[in-house]
Request: fold
Amino acid sequence: MKKIDLELLLEECLSEGKKVIKDGNVADYIPELKNVNKENIGIHLYTLDNEEYSASNEEFTFSMQSVVKIVLFALALMDNELDRVLSKVGVKPSADPFNSIVKLEETEDHKPLNPFINAGAIASTSLIAADDYQGKFDRVIALLEKLFDRESIEIDEKVFISESTTGDTNRALAYFMKSRGILDKEEDVEELLSIYFKSCSILASTRDLSKLGAVLANKGKAPWSGEQIIPERINQIVCAVMTTCGLYDYSGEFAVIVGMPAKSGVGGGIVCVSHNNMGIGVSSPALDSHGNSIAGIEMLRVLSNKLDISIF
Amino acid sequence: MKKIDLELLLEECLSEGKKVIKDGNVADYIPELKNVNKENIGIHLYTLDNEEYSASNEEFTFSMQSVVKIVLFALALMDNELDRVLSKVGVKPSADPFNSIVKLEETEDHKPLNPFINAGAIASTSLIAADDYQGKFDRVIALLEKLFDRESIEIDEKVFISESTTGDTNRALAYFMKSRGILDKEEDVEELLSIYFKSCSILASTRDLSKLGAVLANKGKAPWSGEQIIPERINQIVCAVMTTCGLYDYSGEFAVIVGMPAKSGVGGGIVCVSHNNMGIGVSSPALDSHGNSIAGIEMLRVLSNKLDISIF
Amino acid sequence: MKKIDLELLLEECLSEGKKVIKDGNVADYIPELKNVNKENIGIHLYTLDNEEYSASNEEFTFSMQSVVKIVLFALALMDNELDRVLSKVGVKPSADPFNSIVKLEETEDHKPLNPFINAGAIASTSLIAADDYQGKFDRVIALLEKLFDRESIEIDEKVFISESTTGDTNRALAYFMKSRGILDKEEDVEELLSIYFKSCSILASTRDLSKLGAVLANKGKAPWSGEQIIPERINQIVCAVMTTCGLYDYSGEFAVIVGMPAKSGVGGGIVCVSHNNMGIGVSSPALDSHGNSIAGIEMLRVLSNKLDISIF
Amino acid sequence: MKKIDLELLLEECLSEGKKVIKDGNVADYIPELKNVNKENIGIHLYTLDNEEYSASNEEFTFSMQSVVKIVLFALALMDNELDRVLSKVGVKPSADPFNSIVKLEETEDHKPLNPFINAGAIASTSLIAADDYQGKFDRVIALLEKLFDRESIEIDEKVFISESTTGDTNRALAYFMKSRGILDKEEDVEELLSIYFKSCSILASTRDLSKLGAVLANKGKAPWSGEQIIPERINQIVCAVMTTCGLYDYSGEFAVIVGMPAKSGVGGGIVCVSHNNMGIGVSSPALDSHGNSIAGIEMLRVLSNKLDISIF
Reply:
């Protein structure tokens, strides 16, 4: 990483990001997501020596959406043998959109290509060990409290209800997986999806994402406490899959342009990992055609170029 | 139609049909369907001058399964403007299996290719006009009582329960259609599928199918009463779609080999229409790889060749 | 067929057809095809008792394009055991466009779905028995001379050259089939395609198509001479496949709307078969989105409705 | 990288690799590739301080096959603006096999998903700037002479002829791309493919691949001479695409299991990049179902784990 005035650099990122907001659109397939301030934009760095840098138009939070898929996948890996997880969800990049059902039917084993498309995240959720569905969610919350280093986690109830009432594509994905044995016969699809939708509705700030990213950048260990939150090998798997699959069907381009493990969500957030260096959280609600924050990617591009922190 | 001793011919059909039973398999994806006598085989003709001819190993009934899709589609056409029906379900043959979801995603308008794949039949069911879901089913029963010329219609409850508990692919199809607006936002998928599964579980005999076929062969008019049960134009549409789409992805081959409008079901029944001539019902539970009764098709092939009644 | 003043009816067909020309577009993917008079429109009937009726804006000819696929398929069937033909080309309707390559890769046996998509017609051409490629073409010409009842057949050289220089999709289809063993290892793709392109470039009039249709309507026998030009069983197969596959991915709709065996070409021509009744040739160069003559289909629709000659 | 006795480690890699050879199959779709010693196995490291370590059953060379796609892509990037390259070939991972044509038709822009599937490599070849086709090949050779640090490069003539005579899938890909404008109208497909097949037939050793890998690991600069062979930004792009797309549809799993930029070929070779550390060449001809050297991957897995050199 080049020596550079980080405060100034973040202002430059912000300024470049603002320029492209107009080219994106706020997610509308979950109606409630439309009710955000399109001008919101922020970036936050959390370094492994616990320094923080940030820039934003104002303080704001956003629903994690697909960013939470990292947590669901990590829990699935923590609760099961790797082979069992890989028998239910692949780690293959997909050139199809995140909510596509085609590959579930066309591939021989009918398993979701990877844990970061919707089908794969639903499969991950089903693999989280708990006595009941509420128990699964409690574990999501408990892990996020550690990763965000916070005492409580909030849900955007309106977003949750909105996702739930418009989540028929996800229902189709879940029932299809159930019909093919990826989800168990006993799985209660509505209950399972309820946990999934609730997880997607968890509120986060760019600071939260940067701390989550810092754990991933530190081999699963919290820089602020030294606690091994995610086992090292699982941390590595998660970062590998983030690199090949984290930005939906834009992951290949992102590797070329930014070159770091990352995971985006249609709420506008992106978490990004600079190994042995820092975690980065960005957010801005206007999305490109792939469903990624358009200003978020631009800020990461500028940051990666200026600091020369691509892993490639 | 060639002059021929029909009794003798039907015995020949039966004998040829029996030879191929061993090459087929009884449907197993609905568990209850497995519990049938694989050796069952029958053929029944009902001519437009109300003569009947039949041959079989013994008396038996079977669940209509996809044969009922004719009735669901006819009701959809009777209850709606043609354009409205065609906006929700196409009339395109499909080279994909009957329960495929791929084309729902890949086609631009996301509507089922035709009313005789599962998605299309579910869409047809949603188009039947009634105050509530039970009302839809009452209309199916009422139409079948006329077409079968019977006072009561029975359901195979075990099959119904079996379909319902294993119908997750159909749930996936229905939720996907709901997510794309083919089914209305207000549609209750479980209620709708319940009517669909119940319709598939209706019991019929080869005689029942031959009478249904005789109505279709007679421009929608019952040969036994003269009643116009299905409007003439709708009858024509149904027969056209049976010809291009009635035997799933085997429809093209069937046109070459048999050459008549027909509709098969995984319960083993096939209804076949010889225009201005007669209706034909065949049944035998062992299926070929497309889901069609293997002996049923063989009997229809022999019959069509010997009587020279292909429409082509 | 209803008694009706046919001359008057054909004028009505023409008038209805003219109204929809503006909604279509002349084919542009073969550049030379653009150089036609978009206002050309004609219909010609040839009855089995050798009466003729016609209406048109003026005399014109057009390249047969896909209409010639009937002849290529008939020759393939005349020169090979049916099973051999069916091992190289299916008889399954396709919901994909006529020049699609997707199904060649995705289906298990990699054979073209049917003889009326481009890949299938190329496979048919390869099955025509002859000492060399010119010999294949001579047989196409010889059969067409009989079907058109003419002493010579002409090619539109400009169209041929245009097809050849822009035929890279067809080259892709042919090489793909060769790679999968549908075409033999020894097949010379350029030579084979040259015969195929030349066949597509054969010039015809609506009268020619009506006579070809009359043979098909008469079980393969020329009404004018009594000669059995196409064997009866092959004639039946060809008509069956025309019904399920003749209008590309519009075949299902055409069965509902017109209801007769037919084959269209992007040159604007359509041949249509009214069994035991007459052959029909229509032509008009503006095409709908499926590649079928938009006015041609409209004329056939009016004709079929007024004469009540749908086979369904 | 852990301190470890590298000689011993390579012997362990070799020994683990040998165990899995029996589970793979030598490529047979290019007939000449079958004529190799299935027991061949080797690994070679070339560090950035110019130390070398190796282990193998015997000295052997192999045709580069898809490993050469790195060079074709690098040349395309060196000879064109990045945007021009990206308009002809994407950088998206593909879940389809390396010779699949489906996505070329199904994606909106019809461009190959990435430069490491066959279609993408053919498109890369067409982008190499030269006066004629021989000139393109001369540039491939010239670049490889630098990357391998050798004075001459050899071709396996038998493999070249074998590829050429059985390359019909590649012809299909090329003509399809030409039909969609990815290749220019003026492109001579046979000439272009000849260069492509010749490039695939270039012979290499594991030492050659390790030196190529060392250049990539050193930001494009030869460790032995300090020459900047590949511009730094292009080197970074190539390594990014190797990570997401280098092992065909196994790239996602490889990232999880090995975690380094790599590129495999059906000749059995794999080049692998440990940034700022070393280049790695492995080879063994038996392939897994994805077309990757089964023992090669196993050796890289052991090496990566023991040295802890995954980038994730």
In short: The CA atoms of residues 260 and 310 of chain A lie 6 Å apart. Chain A touches chain D at residues 90-95, 103, 107, 113-114, 236-237, 239-241, 243-245, 249, 251-253, 255-256, 259, 261, 275, 310-312 (CB under 8 Å). Strands of chain A lie at 25-26, 42-47, 52-56, 62-63, 203-204, 262-264, 269-274, 278-283, 286-287. Chain A has two domains: 6-65+203-307, 68-200.
